Amino acid sequence: MAAVAAAAVVVRVVNWLLAHGWFLFIAAVLAAVSGFGWWQQRTQRMRWERARSRALRYGLAQLDALSPQQFEYAVRDLMHRDGSHQLGLQ
User: Fold this and answer.
1) For a pLDDT cut of 90, what percent of the chain falls above it?
2) Using CA atoms, how far apart are residues 79 and 73, in angstroms rounded to an integer?
3) Does residue 58 contact residue 71 with C-beta atoms inside 8 Å?
4) In angstroms, rounded to a whole number, what is the distance separating the alpha carbons of residues 90 and 87?
5) pLDDT band at 78 (very low <50, low <70, confident <90, very high)
6) What angle do CA 53, 59, 61 make, to 5 degrees?
7) What is the torsional sign of CA 23, 29, 35, 37?
8) Predicted structure pTM score
9) What is the mean pLDDT of the chain?
10) Of 2, 28, 75, 81, which is least surrounded by CB within 10 A?
11) How far apart are CA 53 and CA 73, in angstroms?
12) Among residues of the chain, what percentage have pLDDT more than 70?
């Protein structure tokens, strides 16, 4: 009984969508714009991470000059840069 009711609902929805093609067009345009925005944001984030990783370099004198807390942050950032995600970093 539930399968028949579900099939009836699907048939009604499909018929409505066929009668109102503009809705599908608008949905497709919104999906395309959203997808493009997501892709752009992802690409920008990847570029930013690459630039940040390249800039993350320390010399021995720089490491010696860091406070203990700054040293811990530096090690964390270097590990994250090199692919270690064991620390639960965001």
Assistant:
1) 48
2) 10
3) no
4) 9
5) confident
6) 145
7) negative
8) 0.48
9) 87
10) 2
11) 14
12) 93
Question: Measured between alpha carbons, how far is residue 77 from residues 11, 24, 62, 65, 89 in Å?
Answer: 55, 46, 15, 17, 9
Structure token digits, residue 47: 């570029």
DSSP string, the chain: -HHHHHHHHHHHHHHHHHH-HHHHHHHHHHHHHHHHHHHHHHHHHHHHHHHHHHH----HHHHHHS-HHHHHHHHHHHHHHTT--TT---
Identify residue 81 by its one-letter amino acid code: R
